[in-house]
């Protein structure tokens, strides 16, 4: 019972953070509008409490929301699962189907993770010492390819899974028009692995936004090598952000996409 109350408080905390700022929501919509048009299919991998679902719906997208945490998935089903254009799947995404040991931070569920390496990196990093992953639970593990086979090919994929991003992309065998993945300065190697995977998959160009400001860092998209250099030069205090990737329109897999990161 104590864990249930702690989890409920953690979800309430996340809702206050992610739903309490209208200006932030407007910036989010403006950013995602670069990638998402009405009627598009979007995968939200690591939905947490669904603030991105809200943005994607405002832009007219159909959303497949994937979230492994039981408390967060229950909240998503209540908030969005009954809506016609949202499907909530309680699972994690990785390189192969099976089961994953999910490490849950009940007080701060936004940093729950399937990556033991992420927890180890956080334990050694300034500013992370008070975080505690106090529950472990086995959850179903799917792949992006299996999700695409079931739901169709998305126009955009958002990936935010606390150090598990490279594992998610390892389960994608064909390029998609556009996607984003979170990075942290405590695990730059994970972001570098994501960049390498995407450059193997197709002719991608990149941009980035720091933290939750939803503002692109570059006036024009850059190549993977330049993005890797930019990432390596960030101060530790930058903490986190998202890297956006768009397949060049000349790539046969782009399907005529006109998104600009």
Overall geometry comes to globular
| Helix fraction bin | 25-40%
Number of domain modules = 1
Low-confidence stretches: none
Q: What is the CATH homologous superfamily assignment? A: Vaccinia Virus protein VP39
CATH fold call = Rossmann fold
Chain oligomer state: single chain
So, CATH architecture? 3-Layer(aba) Sandwich
Pfam families: Methyltransf_21
InterPro entries: FkbM_mtfrase, SAM-dependent_MTase, SAM-dependent_MTases_sf
Protein name: Methyltransferase FkbM domain-containing protein
Domain Methyltransferase FkbM: 44-174
Structure write-up:
This protein has 261 residues and is of the alpha/beta class. It has one domain (2-254): Rossmann fold. 36% of the residues lie in helices and 22% in strands. It is built from nine helices and ten strands. The protein has helices at residues 2-19, 22-32, 51-58, 70-81, 116-123, 144-151, 165-170, 188-201, 224-233; strands spanning 41-45, 62-66, 86-89, 92-93, 98-104, 135-142, 156-159, 178-184, 204-210, 240-247. The strands form two sheets. It has a seven-stranded mixed beta sheet, with helices on both faces. α3 links the parallel β1 and β2 (62-66). α2 (22-32) packs across α3 (51-58) and α8 packs antiparallel against α9. The chain starts with a helix and ends in a 14-residue tail after the last strand.
